[in-house]
Write a structure and sequence with these properties.
The protein has helices spanning about 10-15, 25-35, 40-50, 55-70, 105-130, 140-155, 165-180, 190-195, 220-250, 255-265, 285-300, 305, 315-330, 340-350, 360-365, 375-400, 400-405, 410-430, 435-450; strands spanning about 40, 75-80, 85-95, 140, 195-200. With about 450 residues, it is mainly alpha-helical. α1 packs antiparallel against α4 (about 55-70), α11 packs across α18 (about 410-430) and α18 (about 410-430) packs antiparallel against α19. A 3-stranded antiparallel beta sheet has the order 1-3-2.
């Protein structure tokens, strides 16, 4: 990991967070921020970053600062509520699923409209505070540079910051975010932009952010940063897998592979995969079991199998969820009964093909008592619901992958097999994993008694 990622400073920050951030965590954060259609308050963003409450505030802030430095997030400022000092920070996600045509994404259109509405208001507020007779005048950028410098100086000295300077700093932050979201090389000639800002800058400096003075990136460059960060943590994950593999190989008797291989060829169920897309498929374990494991993974996420599974309506899903949750609460061991296991297989196959999260899952299928607010209901059952989902996904995994684990009996080999399966899921499905896809990762980790890093 000595090679530079983006630049030396970013590489150093990635190394700082890697002890407490893994591939699973960073992927989930980025998936959640992709096409996010609202302003993110600091509290809401902290909830996305620290979704499993495993981080302290300092660690969460380190991740947020890194995302902002990579321009995956833009910081915008607003006047604080009464009783609070100075300004409040909000965030805009700059991660979009289609950077070639972002205007086709509803979240992009929504965010641009939100920014333009704020700019309409802020231009008026700025001109009023500057005692200008015309409140619709475009804001000169050279004035904003002066306000940003004054704001920095006054903040470091602890002096109360004037309303003029505050509104200048707010306008500067909205300018930086708006130029990124416009995603145009000639943004300064855009008529809508000129309604808000008057550009007097040196052409060589116009691509620099007003607040940070870093070069503003295009959405394509930001997407490149996303991929670089994902690849960085994927490399860390691969290094961990390789270390586990070498440790297992050293501790495993030399004749065990021969015994398993003869059983494999004898059964004729598991062919050797000769089209390697990943180095671990070239290991003895990968050659023996890789093809079978890949076919099971494909089956888990197959839309064709889902459509042929027999689920006909939302009422069927609601009935299964209610029954399985009732059994889980009353007698969890009964989930292993055939009729319950059959429902679990159908339900999980369904969830792996949905694009909502556990909050919407709870509201759709478990929120039946309308006498209390959903927010209060969800807060009361959130932890219990996550344990329930982990349980049914673990049962699903055990059943689905039983053809593999009927052959692999060594505890060390089971652990290695689980690590192998997790990596193959990330490689084959990583970019399209939904919320429930991460529950199956969690279930595999629990089954194999491993920590995904």
């Amino acid at each position: 990991m000595e090679d530079l990622t983006v630049n030396g400073k970013i590489t150093a920050e990635l190394k700082k967070i890697s002890p407490f951030v893994d591939f699973n965590t960073i992927s989930r954060i980025i998936n959640k921020l992709t096409d996010y259609a609202e302003m993110l308050t600091e509290g809401k963003l902290a909830g996305i970053v620290n979704y499993n409450y495993s981080l302290n505030s300092s660690q969460s802030n380190m991740i947020i600062d890194l995302l902002a430095e990579l321009q995956l997030l833009s910081r915008v400022y607003n006047i604080a509520h009464k009783g609070k000092r100075d300004l409040e920070i909000e965030y805009i996600s700059n991660i979009f699923s289609d950077i070639n045509n972002p205007a086709s994404i509803s979240s992009y259109i929504s965010m641009r409209n939100i920014l333009e509405n704020r700019l309409n208001h802020q231009v008026q507020q700025y001109n009023v505070n500057m005692n200008k007779s015309n409140t619709t005048l475009s804001i000169p950028l050279n004035e904003l540079h002066g306000h940003v410098k004054t704001y920095r100086d006054m903040s470091s000295s602890g002096v109360t910051i004037s309303s003029k300077v505050q509104h200048g700093f707010i306008a500067a932050s909205l300018h930086d975010a708006y130029v990124i979201i416009m995603n145009r090389n000639d943004w300064w000639d855009d008529k809508t932009y000129m309604k808000y800002f008057f550009n007097e800058e040196d052409p060589e400096k116009r691509h620099l952010s007003i607040i940070t003075r870093d070069r503003r990136l295009t959405l394509r460059e930001i997407e490149g940063n996303v991929k670089t960060v994902i690849n960085y943590f994927m490399e860390l994950y691969s290094a961990k897998i390789k270390a586990v593999q070498e440790q297992v190989a050293e501790s495993m008797p030399s004749d065990q592979i021969i015994v398993d291989a003869s059983r494999d060829h004898g059964s004729g169920d598991y062919g050797i995969n000769n089209r390697f897309s990943d180095r671990i498929l070239m290991t003895p374990f990968g050659k023996q079991y890789g093809s079978k494991i890949d076919s099971i993974i494909d089956s888990c996420f197959s839309k064709e199998e889902y459509e042929a599974s027999g689920i006909t309506s939302e009422d069927d899903i609601a009935g299964m969820v209610a029954e399985l949750y009732r059994v889980y609460k009353a007698l969890p061991g009964s989930l292993a009964m055939k009729q319950n296991r059959d429902m679990i297989m159908l339900l999980v196959q369904h969830l792996l093909n949905q694009d909502y999260g556990i909050k919407q899952f709870a509201e759709k299928y478990l929120y039946t008592d309308r006498k209390i607010s959903f927010g209060r209901f969800f807060a009361d059952i959130k932890n219990d619901l996550e344990e329930f989902l982990t349980k049914i996904f673990t049962d699903y995994f055990e059943e689905k992958f039983s053809p593999v684990f009927r052959i692999i009996r060594s505890l060390d080999m089971k652990q290695y097999a689980c690590a192998f399966i997790i990596k193959r899921i990330y490689i084959k499905r990583g970019e399209s994993l939904n919320t429930f896809g991460f529950f199956i990762i969690k279930a595999i980790s629990k089954y194999g008694k491993i920590k995904v890093v």
